[in-house]
Amino acid sequence: MLRAELLEGDVLDQLLNDFESDHTEHYMEPETTYAEPGSHTSYRPQRVQGNDQTGFSQWINSKEEVRQNLQSKLGTPKITLDGCIKLYTEHNIKIDDPVILWFPTADVAKYKEYDRNMENGWTGKMDQEEYDGLMQDIKANGIKNPGILDITNNGGAEYSVILGEGNHRLKIATELGQELFPLSFYYKYG
Q1: Is 53 inside any structural domain?
Q2: Within-domain flag for 36
Q3: pLDDT single digits (tens) 114-162
Q4: 73: domain range?
Q5: Where are the beta strands (DSSP E) in 7-100?
Q6: Virtual CA dihedral for 139, 142, 145, 148, nearest 10 degrees?
Q7: Closest by Cα among 131, 139, 64, 60 to 95
Q8: Nearest CA to 62 among 104, 110, 99, 30?
Q9: What is the pTM assigned to this prediction?
Q10: With contact defined as beta carbons under 8 Å apart, do 98 and 91 qualify?
Q11: Is the four-CA dihedral 55, 85, 71, 51 of positive or negative sign?
């Protein structure tokens, strides 16, 4: 590797210009596709009352463990989204990252962060071509990556819950009439 001080100024400038021209345009968003600020509906996290949790959480690592914990802690024989949220907010039990559970799409929609409607060719994060490509992929292959439900302990017994990742996929699943939507869980404090 050449040290910078061994390069003459013009050569170094040329290398830097080459580097910038090769890489920067990949990260630039098209200027004409942005919708007006505030034109996309966003939602505040749902507030959930639970118990004041302290200490280390118990982690559960499989769908069967989720079911067993729901039955023992909540008396719920079936895995529901609200039941999984209550495992943490009421009993300090977390579902581990690799566990992906499928819930009714309508239940997941209660926790969406954005509508992700197309306005002026832009959803707030994705243009029409990208959105159509994602829709075609989901039609052909299903949803490959789960949404991520963020459950945040706001201190004390108050929690907030929101779909932090997957709002486009949720919108498309709804449009396609898919009854189930995959989720994983992410927990944070404050």
Answers
A1: no
A2: no
A3: 776 656 666 566 677 887 888 899 999 999 999 999 999 998 899 999 9
A4: 58-189
A5: 46-49, 58-60, 93-95
A6: 90
A7: 60
A8: 99
A9: 0.74
A10: no
A11: positive
The total number of structural domains that make up the chain: 1
Residue 49 lies in a domain: no
Interacting residues of 130 by C-beta distance below 8 A, sequence separation 6+: none
Question: Is 99 a domain residue?
Answer: yes
Residue linked to tokens 């819950």: 161
Q: What is the CATH number of the domain that holds 80?
A: 3.90.1530.10
pLDDT attached to residue 14: 53
**What is the tens place of the pLDDT at every residue in 64-109?**
999 999 999 999 989 999 999 999 999 999 999 999 999 999 999 9
The stretches of 24-100 forming alpha helices (DSSP H) are 63-69, 81-91
Q: In terms of C-beta distances under 8 Å and separation of at least 24 residues, what long-range contacts does 53-60 make, across chains too?
A: 53/88, 53/89, 53/92, 53/153, 55/92, 57/88, 57/92, 57/93, 57/94, 57/187, 58/91, 58/92, 58/93, 58/94, 59/93, 59/94, 59/95, 59/96, 60/87, 60/93, 60/94, 60/95, 60/96, 60/99
